[in-house]
Amino acid sequence: xxxxxxxxxxxxxxxxxxxxxxxxxxxxxxxxxxxxxxxxxxxxxxxxxxxxxxxxxxxxxxxxxxxxxxxxxxxxxxxxxxxxxxxxxxxxxxxxxxxxxxxxxxxxxxxxxxxxxxxx
Length: 120
Prior knowledge:
Blueprint: E1 6-7, E2 13-23, H1 29-47, H2 49-55, E3 58-61, E4 66-70, H3 74-91, E5 95-105, E6 109-112, E7 115-118
Helix pairs in contact: 1-2, 1-3
């Protein structure tokens, strides 16, 4: 398994640690996406573009007005830290972040624009 994931009894299923950033409804998700782009560029400078493309897992959810970032890898942890700092400066007090565990099957993942995301 990659990214420090642990296997479940169901074949192909994984438990992953994620950071869930939840935003107030008045925060435009387009701005969240722009800040994500800035943070991703910073993480690519540290870890290299290939490593980020192979190891980054995230999702912006318009229905839930939230963003999930995988936290099992060093890249995901670093991205979450950068996002936390940038979101705090931009949206002071208008978002929350918690750590969650998600059980996902490999078939739930969608590979898109060099980042691994999943569909709800």
